[in-house]
Specification:
Blueprint: H1 16-39, H2 47-69, H3 74-92, H4 98-116, H5 118-141, H6 146-149, H7 152-155, H8 164-172, H9 180-200, H10 207-228, H11 233-266, H12 273-308, H13 312-332
Helix pairs in contact: 1-2, 1-3, 2-3, 4-12, 5-10, 5-11, 9-10, 9-11, 9-12, 10-11, 11-12, 11-13
């Protein structure tokens, strides 16, 4: 008597033709819906199709699982894999138009991220101007401290030995024609590096970020003291304000983002260290992206506006208006909802 036939490991357990006939209608409908979303948008779907989409996706996933387990033909498995992948991205990762992403960034994402960092930002501002005051007092008492703060090459002659006439010329003399764009690009690159380092070094428990904020403040105070000692204090304030309100604010925001990351690494709280860093990173990265935009604005004001506008009062007015504008944008407007979870 012959033994009963049993399926081998490489024999299909499901008839491919009957399997396709039973489920092909669902696959075709899912493909039509996904194609319509890809070509138009999810708003183009009818209510019936919108309600059917998750169920059709689950049915297709089930069909893919059966096809793999029963060794159906490879072409069918490949088709179902591609269909399920396309459906997954439309259900769970619908692409937002670029213009809408940009609108969301400027309307909610960026201002809410900066607002949530207000404590760290205030700390960086106090740290910067506290260091500036310290440098001013130290160099006022002993000018040799200047060379410990600012290297000779970076000072470009603007040091305690410079005459008042030379220092005044650096504030008001116009540069050679054609150099404004190059100068603006150089300054934007330099300031962006400071901000990026302040942000990136935050992972080292925020210690390098704090030191960078201190050093940036020391440089600011050293430069101011050189001009103030020659009776050019108000003049250099105007020279700095036209771009400095935006530039210093942006660097402090970058430093605040770095400190937020450093605190998440050092003090994760009840969450795991990785979860804490990821949560802090969302806010910090958004704020940092905006800080780069602020630096671009500061670069234009410094490389172009400051070189073409030589009136001290006008320089101060522009700098003050920029500062008031940033403060209103970040802190004075009503709280807006965003995906930051702050």
């Amino acid at each position: 008597m012959n033994a009963p036939l049993t399926p081998t490991s490489d024999a299909p357990l499901v008839n491919a033709t009957r399997f396709r006939r039973a489920h092909e209608g669902d696959w075709e409908r899912l493909e039509a819906i996904v194609t319509r979303i890809e070509k138009r948008s999810i708003r183009s779907l009818s209510d019936d199709d919108l309600l059917a989409l998750p169920a059709l996706y689950r049915t297709s996933l089930s069909s893919l699982s059966v096809a793999r387990d029963t060794s159906l033909d490879r072409a069918l498995i490949t088709y179902l894999e591609r269909l399920c992948t396309r459906a997954y991205f439309q259900i769970y990762g619908v692409q937002t138009p670029v213009w809408r992403q940009l609108t969301g960034f400027f309307a909610t994402g960026w201002p809410n991220a900066v607002r949530s960092l207000w404590r760290e930002t205030l700390f960086c501002v106090v740290l910067t101007f506290g260091a500036a005051l310290l440098a001013y007092l130290l160099i006022g008492g002993d000018p040799s401290w200047f060379y410990s703060v600012i290297p000779e090459g970076m000072a470009e002659g603007r040091d305690p030995s410079a005459s008042a006439e030379f220092l005044r010329s650096t504030l008001y003399d116009k540069p050679k024609e054609g150099w404004l764009g190059v100068f603006a690009t150089f300054l934007f690159t330099h300031n962006s590096q400071i901000a990026i380092f302040a942000f990136a070094l935050g992972f080292a428990f925020a210690v390098p970020t704090v030191l960078l904020m201190l050093y940036n403040g020391l440089m600011l105070g050293a430069l101011f003291e050189v001009f103030a000692s020659k009776g050019l204090g108000p003049n250099v304030i105007g020279w700095l304000m036209i771009h400095g309100t935006t530039e210093i604010f942006s660097i402090c925001i970058a430093g605040a983002a770095g400190i937020r990351l450093g605190l998440a690494v050092a003090f994760p709280g009840q969450d795991s260290r990785m979860d804490s860093v990821v949560a802090a990173g969302r806010t910090a990265a958004t704020a940092m992206a905006g800080a780069v935009i602020m630096l671009a604005v500061a670069g234009l004001l410094e490389g172009v506006g400051r070189q073409t506008i030589t009136n001290d009062t006008l320089r101060m007015l522009i700098g003050s208006a920029a500062l008031i504008g940033w403060l209103a944008y970040f802190y004075a407007l009503p709280t807006r909802r965003s995906a930051l979870g702050e």
